Hints:
Blueprint: E1 14-19, E2 24-25, E3 30-38, E4 44-52, E5 57-61, E6 63-64, E7 70-76, E8 83-93, E9 98-108, E10 114-117, E11 131-136, E12 142-149, E13 152-160, E14 164-167
Parallel strand pairs: 2-9
Antiparallel strand pairs: 1-3, 3-7, 4-5, 4-8, 6-7, 8-9, 10-11, 11-14, 12-13
Amino acid sequence: xxxxxxxxxxxxxxxxxxxxxxxxxxSSGSYSFNTTVSDAMSSLYGVFFQIVNNSANxxxxxxxxxxxxxxxxxxxxxxxxxxxxFARIVANDSLNWTNQTTTFEFIxxxxxxxxxxxxxxxxxxxxxxxxxFVFNDSVFKNATCSILLNNISYNTSFVxxxxxxxxxxxxxxx
Length: 174
């Protein structure tokens, strides 16, 4: 009689995001999403990226790219609305074991923030005149804003969206 070897596969494929990094701002053009997927027991059947946000919910089929278990798909970001997008890598092996635990988010932002100067007197010889401004953005809740005078940064502050910031210069920057 001859021996029969039987291998039981109960392991899902392994998936890791290569690009983009989590939280990346991908504003325009075609972008290549990349992942590394492997399966120690079975061959891979398919890999795709699920993209979800308030205006879209769709999947992008990835293609095997060269070697080293790399898969990628390119997508035209102009087809996405502005805002935060959530993505999930879904990897199926030939026995239909599925891994969909690798997630990341990216931001599409094509609109520049609006900075409104609220200082009552812009034309002054007073070297210590306070400078007040408000930052507004349709995507980001906060930002790092800097005061530049003659291309020199004198103040960098973390500002919440819609909040007024006051910069009080001293006479040394006049």
